[in-house]
Design goal:
The protein is α/β, with parallel strands linked by helices. The protein has a single domain, classed as UDP-N-acetylmuramoyl-L-alanine:D-glutamate ligase. Helix content is 31%, strand content 26%. The chain contains 10 helices and 18 strands. Strands 8-6-1-12-13-14-15-16-17-18 form a 10-stranded mixed β-sheet, with helices on both faces.
Length: 339
């Protein structure tokens, strides 16, 4: 049995450092866009190839924290797929359960500029990730970390049923499909089976249908639906965590520099689960240890901060030794109050 198994997407990410002009573009959340003249040729300072994808990123966190870890995903049979296996081997993540597709391994080209990025993705093999033939007995673990891409969101029912029958704690970072109309009802009926639910602010509002400006009502509703812990990240504004009895608020560690924000959310979610595992917290409602939650918040925040200081989703992921010995991660104010 593994300590943790990550189930979901894997990509190969190519980071291209760019220097294009920014123009006004109201259709984006930032209100800006890169201006790339059509028909022209441009150079780049550097190109970096890294492992990416929600589940792959999480598996690296778990392995660097010293846990026995496996990844279940789908990749292609070519050179990119082999590259993924080699990266996982170097991180001590078991890749023996990975399925192969005739489609190419999923890839992203990420235009990186001043710490922000624009992402172009070819889904490829991950479009065939469905879990219909998955041997769940071979994936037994104390925790599963789920982030189900594409049509694989339909497998949540099977996964949670098996987890409940085999005493597996489940952390879920919902995909777009589960947040959209087609999968929302399915998600709502499964929230009661989760140990940890990881969302950003927009996703939290979307799940419960309440604007996040009314955040107390958002959390009250989420606490009704989720028996374990709800984690809601807010980027530079930090995080709010609720365990049904207490609510915790924390900011962020000061970054030495912001190089690339890709993977920060994955680093936080997986870091939080790793922290709970270190503290042997099982997320039983009414008996959750506040010290375990605070430790998990601190580890998650450190992991996310370290990730944005490096290019790619995995280069900055910290090890258990780095977290325990580096004084940088010791002081971190966390406020908590009873609900």
């Amino acid at each position: 049995m593994y300590d943790l198994v990550a189930i979901g997407s894997t990509t190969v990410d190519a980071f291209w450092k760019t220097d294009f002009k920014l123009i006004s573009y109201p259709k984006t959340p930032s209100g800006k866009a890169l201006a790339i003249p059509l028909g022209e040729k441009f150079g780049t300072e550097d190109v970096y190839y890294t492992l990416g994808g929600n589940a792959a990123n999480a598996s690296v966190t778990f392995a660097r924290e010293g846990f026995s870890t496996a990844l279940f995903t789908t990749i292609g049979k070519g050179a990119r797929g082999q590259q993924v296996r080699e990266w996982l081997l170097s991180e001590h993540v078991d890749s023996s359960h990975i399925e192969e597709s005739s489609l190419p391994t999923s890839e992203s080209v990420i235009l990186l500029q001043n710490g922000e990025r624009s992402i172009i993705t070819r889904h490829g093999a991950i479009n065939e990730f469905h879990l219909d033939s998955a041997d769940l007995d071979a994936l037994k673990a104390r925790w599963w970390y789920l982030s189900l891409p594409g049509e694989s969101y339909k497998a949540l029912d099977r996964l949670l049923k098996y987890a409940g029958e085999n005493n597996i704690n489940v952390a879920l970072n919902p995909s777009w499909y589960h947040l959209a109309e087609k999968g929302h009802k399915d998600l709502m009926r499964h929230l009661a089976s989760l140990s940890v639910l990881v969302l950003n602010r927009g996703e939290a509002a979307q799940v419960v249908g309440i604007p996040f400006e009314k955040k107390d009502k958002v959390f009250d509703k989420l606490d009704e639906l989720v028996p374990g812990i709800v984690v809601v990240t807010g980027g530079r504004e930090g995080v709010v965590v609720s365990d049904g009895s207490r609510r915790y608020r924390a900011g962020i560690f000061k970054e030495s520099s912001v190089v690339d924000r890709t993977g920060a959310g994955d680093a936080f979610g997986s870091g939080f689960v790793a922290g709970l595992f270190h503290q042997k917290e099982k997320c039983n409602k009414g008996s959750i240890n506040p010290k375990a939650v605070e430790y998990a918040i601190r580890l998650a925040s450190a992991n996310a901060t370290s990730v944005v200081e490096r290019i790619g989703s995995t280069a900055g992921i910290i090890t258990a030794e780095e977290f325990e010995k580096d004084s940088r991660w010791k002081e971190f104010p966390i406020e908590s109050e009873k609900i």
